[in-house]
Design goal:
heterodimer; A: 175 residues; mainly alpha; Arc Repressor Mutant, subunit A; 2 domains; 8 helices; 1% strand; B: 300 residues; alpha+beta; Jelly Rolls; Phage tail protein beta-alpha-beta fold; 3 domains; seven-stranded mixed beta sheet; elongated
């Protein structure tokens, strides 16, 4: 049984090092605003520090995600945006090469996919991207967001299907 | 159009538990290729390549701080909090930020490729893409920085209570509470306060703007700031400025009680020897102090 306390600075720094990026990413995936995602992620950490004696170390991660999510939901100034992404540092030319068998045109594929991703339901999109980009295991996502494993799997499968549907629409409409 | 029948198989395929060929048999080659293309693309994505999002030390060192939601509204008057926490100018996207932790200094090359800012401890400098264009160079600072600016388009450094504009020179800006000090080492700068008063500061000169007033010109003989050599020099500055430096260099929190903040201090304190620094500051002024954990309590 782990007896680390979040009130110990070193432990708190460890929690930060382990989870700050994925927390910020989760908020970005769900709500679309990168700057705000960073701000609310920071706010969640401040609250964790203020309440450190009440949060067991094992619960720190889900506490952070729950608080940050609620803060964002309370923020009235929501705007629907298209999420934009960069390529991960170290992505090689080879990885970017198009498989000649692929069906969707390579040209502007990223832009169309970003648009399709932005149109997914918020929660579904967040789960899908946490899985693919942050490489979180399905079980981990379930525990962190306090939802069932079945729900996580449903979100991921639905995302793929929805994305394919939207890309098909976008491609057909160009003909 | 959700196709629930195949959900399980898609999940298994993604987890590596189901071979591609089998999935292909279920959903067809076209659909499989489409899924593969989508997954391959998304897997390369990241929201942002910057690794540190914010410094956890800001949270833990400053003790119980005010929550960030307050500064979503621009009418917050708690400017002291703004100086201690992140600037409210962080509302725009595409902002580049560099910051130092307590006790750290860092040298940063600016977007023109030639100008440099050396940030003192616990300070922050930032700019957006728009700030750096063909007719001017602008950035914002919280804390203290030493600027070496290459001649070129007008260069301005903005902060809460004013702004410094230069045309190729080296100078130091130090802002604290609602005051600031500008010292010019080379060339010439113009420092403007928020009420539009200004001073031209030439090489070897310095000015302190404190409680909404410009004080008398200071004479400076150094050619660069002392804190680049791990020692901070003060010339007749308010005690508040010295305490701010102690907090930034040593990551301590100072409880001032009723100690008079307006008395002046002249002298030099080491940046890497807290016990000595405290003696140098407080003994001549007759102030007692007690150091416990990271808190320094003053009394007189």
């Amino acid at each position: 049984m782990n007896h680390q306390s979040v009130c110990e600075e070193q432990t708190f720094h460890q929690v930060h090092s382990d989870h700050s990026t994925s927390l910020r990413n989760f908020l970005f995936y769900k709500f679309g605003d990168l700057e705000k995602a960073k701000d609310f992620a920071q706010d969640a950490f401040i609250r964790l520090w203020d309440n450190c004696s009440k949060v067991p170390f094992e619960k720190a991660k889900s506490y952070l995600f729950t608080i940050a999510n609620r803060l964002f939901l309370d923020d009235v100034d929501h705007q629907k945006v298209v999420l934009k992404f960069q390529y991960r540092q170290g992505t090689t030319e080879k990885q970017m090469e198009t498989n000649p068998e692929y069906i969707y045109q390579h040209d502007e594929f990223k832009e169309r996919l970003e648009l399709a991703v932005s149109e997914l339901p918020d929660k579904q999109r967040a789960v899908f991207l946490l899985s693919r980009i942050d490489k979180m295991k399905n079980k981990e996502i379930a525990e962190t967001l306090d939802i069932s494993l079945k729900t996580v799997e449903k979100h991921i499968a639905s995302s793929l299907q929805n994305l394919k549907g939207k890309l098909d629409e976008l491609t057909n409409s160009k003909l | 159009m959700a196709d629930n029948e195949h959900n399980d198989q898609i999940i298994k395929w993604l987890n590596g538990e189901l071979p591609e060929e089998q999935l292909m048999q279920e959903i067809g080659a076209d659909n499989l290729l489409k899924y593969k293309q989508i997954i391959q693309e998304v897997d390369q994505w990241t929201p942002d390549n910057e690794s540190v999002i914010f410094d956890p030390a800001v949270v833990t060192k400053k003790g119980k701080v005010m929550t960030m939601t307050r500064w979503m509204s621009l009418s917050v008057a708690a400017s002291v909090v703004l100086v201690a926490l992140f600037s409210i100018w962080m509302l725009r996207s595409d902002r580049t930020v560099h910051f130092t932790k307590a006790g750290e200094t860092k040298q940063i090359t600016l977007p023109d490729g030639l100008s440099i800012v050396t940030l003192a401890a616990n300070s922050k400098v930032s700019w957006t893409e728009d700030d750096w264009n063909s007719s001017e160079r602008r950035l914002q600072i919280d804390g203290k920085g030493f600027f070496q600016v290459e001649k070129g388009t007008p260069f301005s450094v903005a902060f809460e209570t004013g702004e410094v504009t230069v045309l190729g020179t080296s100078f130091e800006v130090s802002e604290f509470d609602e005051s600031f000090q500008v010292i010019c080492f080379e060339g010439k700068v113009r420092a403007t306060d928020k009420n539009q008063g200004s001073r031209i500061v030439s090489a070897g000169e310095g000015y302190l703007y404190h409680h909404d007033q410009w004080e008398e010109k200071l004479n400076v003989t150094d050619t660069q700031p002392s804190w680049l050599q791990e020692e901070t020099k003060f010339d007749n500055v308010p005690l508040a400025m010295v305490l701010k430096t102690l907090e930034n260099e040593y990551a301590i929190q100072i409880i001032k009680n009723n100690v008079e903040m307006e008395r002046r201090f002249t002298g030099s304190i080491p940046n890497k020897n807290l016990a000595l620094a405290l003696k140098i500051v407080f003994d001549p002024l007759g102030i007692s102090y007690e150091m416990k954990e990271s808190k320094l309590t003053l009394s007189e």
